[in-house]
Amino acid sequence: MFEQNIPLKQISHYKIGGQARYFFEAKNLEDLSKAVEKARALNIPIVVIGGTTNVLFDDSGFEGLVIRPNFRLIESDGNSVRVGAGAPMSELLNFVLDKKLSGLEWAAGIPGTLGGAVRGNAGAFGGEMKNVIESVVSLDISQTNSKIIKRSGLESLFDYRSSIFKRTPGKEIIFEATLKLEKGNQNKIEEEMNKNINYRLVNHPLEYPSLGSTFKNVPRESIKTNIENMPIKKDPFEVVPAAYFIAEAGLRGVSSGGAMISPKHPNFIVNVLEATSEDVKNLIKLVKNEIKKKFGVELEEEIEYLKSYPQPRY
């Protein structure tokens, strides 16, 4: 049923990682349930991935089952759009543009899948997933008998780059979500999407593999030092970009092994020469230490880590 000994760097958006003991791509809810049951029988841990655009796989690999849901359904009923967790964000954006639905323009250019965007409450240009979520359907695998749970957007407890699903890792697997959008002018929707995509092309180091923003932006209210000369932006509340602190600390272009803090956008750590997870972690540690020392600010990772676990994570 499962593929065995799959190199994670072949799956990884970052092109980093050792071997996964087992790998399975679930095409429907029945596939997913059977995979969970099989993993239980083997007494192995489970992790679920989407587009892997925000997760750092470990060089040591993963001694368990990596599941990738491939639920790519996208359908609309009026202003509501039902989307499978495995649907790429790019396909979703093309769909809503074709249907003349507004509310996701801010997401244009965001990589990965719908499930990952919901789990991490993805956001950009002042927008967030929580603003368009009507409901989320997940499979609770924390008990012997898995069960389906449907939550409203409010019940999903969205927070800055987080949700109930992210705060309880290993408990639930997002299956699909329903988005509530608004009818809009197709030309204006497309214009806004293109503007956001072009911004990324110009300002982000897309020529190298990366996990996007390594660190979360810093809420303005949490900064104790003088912020008079610091840039403030809405994200969606007032924050100081993590990239500002990294640049001011003189860390642009600093490298460790095959990983480098991007000179183009210092909140990106790019894989320029067959980087390892240790290379990336060394740079993360360096950045956090330098920013803490220079500004008294503790940066928090936006990326997630996936490493080998000795016990099942149900």
The CATH architecture term of the largest domain is: 2-Layer Sandwich
Low-confidence stretches: 309-314
Counting H and I runs of at least 4 residues, what is the number of helices? 8
Helix/strand/pairing category: alpha+beta
Task: Return the CATH topology of the largest domain.
Answer: Uridine Diphospho-n-acetylenolpyruvylglucosamine Reductase, domain 3
> What is the CATH domain class of the largest domain?
Alpha Beta
Strand order of the largest sheet: 6-7-13-11-12
User: What is the β-strand count?
Assistant: 21
Share of residues in helices:
25-40%
Radius of gyration: 20 Å
| Overall number of structural domains | 3
Q: Alpha-carbon distance between the termini?
A: 20 Å
User: Per the principal axes of the C-alpha atoms, what is the gross shape?
Assistant: globular
Strand content: 25-35%
Q: For the residues shown, what is the average pLDDT?
A: 94
Secondary-structure element series: EHEHEEEEEHEHEEEEHEEHEEEHEEEHE
Largest β sheet strand count, sense and barrel closure:
5 strands, antiparallel
GO cellular component, one term: cytosol
Organism: Candidatus Curtissbacteria bacterium GW2011_GWA1_40_24
InterPro entries: FAD-bd_PCMH (IPR016166), FAD-bd_PCMH-like_sf (IPR036318), FAD-bd_PCMH_sub1 (IPR016167), FAD-bd_PCMH_sub2 (IPR016169), MurB (IPR003170), MurB_C (IPR011601), MurB_C_sf (IPR036635), Oxid_FAD_bind_N (IPR006094)
Main location: cytoplasm
